[in-house]
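Figure S4 source data
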Amino acid sequence: MPVVLNHMIVPAADKGVAAAFFAGLLGVPVSAEAGPFAPVRVNDELTLDFDERRRAEPGHYAFLVDDGTFDALMERLGRDPAIEYGAGPEEGWNRGINRLGGGRGVYVRDPNGHSYEFFTVVP
């Protein structure tokens, strides 16, 4: 059996707000609370469990996505001028994308300072 990442705990100041923000990026629902967590199922193998019991230290979470998912994400980002996103660390939150490895990529900053990276080709 290959190793599969099943879930990650994402620290948040407000787990409901953080889960809703992330779920909104992907166009998926927030699941019913499970213990202290507000879970968001990313796919059949991975759930992000948002948790407000600890201090929210900014982290980086990267996701390989297909072109359709990337296009839908960019459409959602374009509708909300309050969301900070950009091409990457060197470019800042310039509301652009990068073309690393021949694909497309974008970084999105969430309300807790986390950086979500979405890319279509592994660089």
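Figure S5 source data
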Amino acid sequence: MSSSDAPQRGRPSVLDRAAVATATFRLWTERGYDAVSWRDISEATGVSVRTLVRHFAHKSDIAWVGVPAATRRLRDALENMPADLPVDESARRAIVASISDDPMKPAGTDWIRVVCTEPELAGSAPAAYRPWIDELAGFIARRAPGISPAAATAVASGYQAATFAALVAWGEGRSAGDAAESADEALGWLAVRRPAEEINLT
């Protein structure tokens, strides 16, 4: 094999972030999060440490490569919700639709096992999921007249937490059916209702 035919490492023109995440989660599952270095990830993926660090400022960022795609799927599903459908039913249907296609992509249930057991990853979750929450909060604000931006964000955060908990239960085998069915059941218990004007909270 000539030098020009040799596999190229270090500076791919387009980094396959999903492939990096899949390989990395496999390492984290086998060895533990703290035991896996950038060099280990480089050897497992064929991507240089320099390139990895250029694409992922922190090792924990690899855990959340699927969130942008999940956010796009959520946005598309929300845009297709009928205007006359109640906001809570719309949110439930859109979230379930957004996770029906490979909800754990790219790392499968390895994602659940690692994210739930590593403090650094759990601590980075709120920032990672903020675009997803903002997308849902914007929808809720448009569909629930009178709700404040802060309340819409709080409600969206509740939906995110419930969805994540349902996926955890599914990944751990504590939920019947697939991931979408687990989320559907959990989210069915949530409701968005305008507070009665006569209630005095003072």
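The chain is about 60% helix and 0% strand. The radius of gyration is 20 Å.
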